[in-house]
Structures are given as structure tokens and as C-alpha cells.
Amino acid sequence: MKPISLIQFLIEERRAGHVNAELSLLIEVVARACKRIAVATNKGAIGGVLGEAGTGNIQGEAQKKLDVISNEILLEANAWGGQLAACASEEMEDPQPIPDMYPKGNHLLLFDPLDGSSNIDVNISVGTIFSVLRCPDGVTNPKAEHFLQAGTTQLAAGYVVYGPATVLVLTFGHGTHEFTLDREVGSFILSRRDIRIPEETGEFAINMSNQRHWEAPMQRYIGELLAGKDGPRGRDFNMRWVASMVADVHRIITRGGVFFYPLDAKIKSKGGKLRLMYEANPMAFIIEQAGGAATTGRGRLLELQPTGLHQRVPVFLGSKKEVEVATHYHVEADRAQG
Ligand code: AHG
């Protein structure tokens, strides 16, 4: 079969009425920027891109050089094309306006420029995650409050994983699709259309070192998985944890599985570890469009009304059946407590 490039795919999506010209251009621009990030990531030590940047982000986390480089690549690429009203990045406190000298569009772009950046220096997969919202009508200079839209309103979401291959996964709310970067040609080529995540799985991803800090329902659920064949679930489960959400999610959309970053006593006051607007919402949209489920452990992630641009939330996502069991345990425990 003739390979289908991302550009061809976007033209098809326009013809199908799933995207307009502006959104299609936006995705092309983001994909192009991610190719540049892939090049920088690939150079590793010889590109001088490894190590600390010597700065901190809004979350108070030390930034890696590649965090800063990736953020700049995405901001610069998206400033001038006329497809955006503003950008927001996990790395910056406030939204970035479009400079006055450029035309403005009707979309808001949010991104985590380099997710899993603690893995850069050890040559393990990292990625970029993005989400696209509509700029509210009549708003010409969007502020943080205009980005605070529930995940159900996302027009598009995607991620790029910089792994052995550079892979883009994308949804416009009409299925989840995968594109693999052909480095010689310089194009993303459609490699999987309409990905489906198996409903059942025997593989889970969680940072077990936090076990003693989890809430009781999480202890119960993971305890049952660990008990394997001899426990109430009657089967053995396998565990994986990359510490790059993009890589863990990519495994899940490839062969099934569940991913948890639950609330624990250490992070309770922050609301969770992962960011709703830059990580949880786009991943939840991608996972649901592939037939999986995504919750906060208590309710559907995409229905959560955001209260802050950098808000953190617990995240449960992946194969539907396991997300449902873990969520049910939390809801049941809350009910029992009244
Ligand atoms: P960061 O981008 O700051 O490295 O955070 C990575 C995120 C996510 O990608 C990953 O699943 C999780 O944090 C890992 O957290 P732990 O280090 O606590 O396991």
C-alpha cells in the first residue's frame, strides 16, 4: 500500500470535515517543531544538549537543557503562522501571547515540551505532549482563565515519543492514529489508523516506591494485582514503569496495559503529580479515542473543570476494564466513608 504522509492524512481529515484549514496548519507546525526536537534529542552528548539548564520552571523543578530548547522550538514555530491566539507551556507560568506583528488565529495550544526529561541524560525515551482548544469567542488577548476548559472541549491532542523511532500519535476526536517519522524523507508516515486498546490486560505501570504513601483503595487494588494467580484476580500481572508518561502510554496503546499516578500522602496537598492541562487531558483524549478509559480515580478525567493552568491531578488510564476496577475501589471506599 502507498504510504500516507501526515499532510495527506490532514487533507483527508479536512475533506471529512474533522478539521478546518487553521487546525490542520497548527498540527503541521507542531509536527514540524517536533521533528526539530527529535533532531536535538538524537544528538545527545555530541549536540551539547544534555544536563541541567541551571534554571527552574513554574513547578519549581530543575529544567534540563532540552526542556528549555524544546520549549523555545515550539514557541518560535507557533508564533507567526496565524493559527493561534496564544500558547501555554508546562515550563512557563503564564500563557505566551502571539507577538503583535503576527496575525492571530482562533486556537489555543498547550504543551509539555519534553515530558519525562529526567530520562534524557540516560538515553531513555522522552516526548512532547500537546492539546488544542478553541479560543473563546470575542477574546483577542487570551489569559490563563481562557485556557481553563474541560478536556471534553479539546479539538485535538497528540504526543510525540522520541524513542528508537520518532512516533506521533494524534486524535481529532475521530479515532487515534499513529505516524512514524521517516528520517530520510523527513515526513511522518501513517503507521496505524484507528488504534484500539484491548479492554483487558495483564500489565500495569505505577511507581511502586510510593506504595506506602497511597490511599487504601490503591493499596487494595495493586495488592490484588501483585497477589497474582493466588489472589482474588486469579491471574499473574506484569509491571513496567518508564517514568516517561509518553513511553508508558505508547506501550499501552500498542499492546494494552494500565498506567496510574495516584494521589499519595507526599503529593496530596498539590492534588497529584501530573498536570491536568499538559499531560492528563491530552492523554485521556487519546486513550478514550482508542477505546480505553481515563479517570482521576474518582471520575472521568475529561469532565473535570480545570481551576488552574498548572493544576495537578491523579491519573488512571489505559485498558478499560482495569481502569474501571481501580476507579470502582476508590468510589466504593469514598461511599463507605460517607
Ligand atoms: P518530568 O517531565 O518532570 O520528568 O515528569 C515526568 C512525569 C511523567 O512523564 C512520568 O510518568 C512521571 O512524571 C514519573 O514520575 P516519578 O519520577 O515520580 O516516577
TrEMBL record:
Major localization class: cytoplasm
Entry binding sites for Mg(2+) 2: 112, 115, 279
PANTHER family with a match to the protein in the record: FRUCTOSE-1,6-BISPHOSPHATASE-RELATED, SEDOHEPTULOSE-1,7-BISPHOSPHATASE, CHLOROPLASTIC
Listed EC numbers: 3.1.3.11
Fructose-1-6-bisphosphatase class 1 C-terminal domain mapped to chain residues: 197-330
Domain Fructose-1-6-bisphosphatase class I N-terminal intervals: 6-192
Enzyme class: hydrolase
Protein name stated in the entry: Fructose-1,6-bisphosphatase class 1
Entry's localization field: Cytoplasm
Cofactor binding, per record: Binds 2 magnesium ions per subunit.
Alphabetic keyword roster: Carbohydrate metabolism, Cytoplasm, Hydrolase, Magnesium, Metal-binding
